[in-house]
Amino acid sequence: MSSTGKQKEEEPETAAETARRQLERAAAHLDVDRGIIERLKHPDQVHRVSVPLERDDGETDIFTGYRAQHDSVRGPFKGGMRYHPGVTEEECTGLSMWMTWKCAVMNLPFGGAKGGVVVNPKELSNEEKERLTRRFAEELRDFIGPMRDIPAPDMGTDAQTMAWFMDAYSMQEGETQPGVVTGKPPVVGGSYGREESPGRSVAIITREACEYYDYPLEDTSVAIQGFGSVGANAALALHEWGANVVAVSDVNGAIYDPDGLNIDEIPTHEEEPEAVTTFDAPKRVSNDELLELDVDVLIPAAIGNVLTESNAHEVKADIVVEGANGPTTTTADEIMEKRDIHVIPDILANAGGVTVSYFEWLQDINRRQWSLERVNEELESEMLGAWNDVRAEVEERDVTWRDAAYIVGLSRIAEAHQARGLWP
């Protein structure tokens, strides 16, 4: 193969390209009208807005914001809102598609959306971030709402961002509308357990996968890339349940102890940003090396496109549980499938976030807050239900976990489209 051809193969695919390929793979297993498949390859709408921001020094900068709304056949659009310099229309489109599948796999009455602003939040003061958020809320106001499109926190945004967004929307609407976003602080309508929920669901699915493949949790070694909200909460739960978490990482690198790390003592990103490598451990490795450690379970829980054609042959884990969105490229997926590595997809594993967002939305509509105990019990029930639905397809059709999850999701979406029909 020429060096040019090799370089082309190594270029990371976009989220939208990956999502469309996964859609086609699932469609091949189902008798679904091709018109529905073609509709699902494209978002219903993508909104592009300019967001002016007055900086603290009095200067005005203009930022670009996006909101991709993929499909709403099963309910309002739902998805994260990120502040990151790498935000693009194509990325938002692909992530909104994944949200559609994720909500369908979990059997939630939502469709998929995703959005954000092209900005480095680390370069904003707290006051600038608030002004940017309030203006972004105003620019999107005609396209969002508790029964239309419900944003949530994502990369570079948090509970405070959602509180500002909700307040700005409510002020313009003339009444408090807590249901316009999820992931808010509990004091203004947020749900207990929301922040921990994606990581907790990753831990639940990891536990179930280990049981399914007869890996006693107390004898199972786990490496986790990323120690933010998803990675840290997955690590803490698995550590509590007896798993041997041997490696964790942040943007600066990873720490590794084959005898197991004391996860309780490592500061999370929220507690102390980028502190993982300052923790005392026998060995430090790079984020790339963490992916190739000799462990039973690997959890990529940081960013997308980290498992690629170039390293998929070097993965030594028997089970991969996707904590991040889109950490595995299509080619890497195919390589690991041939190597009998079981990849549990993101649209199942990290769906705890949107599931507890659904709980929050219900609480806001009913103006009745749930206890943390109830949230965790309901999350456990929903995750086990989705796991069993996907497991049934794996066993019945002899397909990969990713294909099975897409089959579950696509069949529900297609059935809804079939029932509602096409507006002439």
From TrEMBL:
Pfam families: ELFV_dehydrog, ELFV_dehydrog_N. Keywords: Oxidoreductase. One of its GO terms (biological process) is L-glutamate catabolic process. Residues 191-421 form the Glutamate/phenylalanine/leucine/valine/L-tryptophan dehydrogenase C-terminal domain. The keyword Metal-binding does not apply. InterPro entries: Aminoacid_DH-like_N_sf (IPR046346), Glu/Leu/Phe/Val/Trp_DH (IPR006095), Glu/Leu/Phe/Val/Trp_DH_C (IPR006096), Glu/Leu/Phe/Val/Trp_DH_dimer (IPR006097), Glu/Leu/Phe/Val_DH_AS (IPR033524), Glu_DH (IPR014362), GluDhGdhB (IPR054867), NAD(P)-bd_dom_sf (IPR036291). Residues 1-20 are annotated as: Disordered. The record marks 154 as: Important for catalysis. Gene3D superfamilies: Leucine Dehydrogenase, chain A, domain 1, NAD(P)-binding Rossmann-like Domain. PANTHER family: GLUTAMATE DEHYDROGENASE (PTHR11606), GLUTAMATE DEHYDROGENASE 1, MITOCHONDRIAL (PTHR11606:SF13). The active site is at 114 (proton donor). Belongs to the Glu/Leu/Phe/Val dehydrogenases family. GO terms for molecular function: glutamate dehydrogenase (NAD+) activity. This is Glutamate dehydrogenase. The keyword Calcium does not apply. SUPFAM superfamilies: Aminoacid dehydrogenase-like, N-terminal domain, NAD(P)-binding Rossmann-fold domains. Homohexamer.
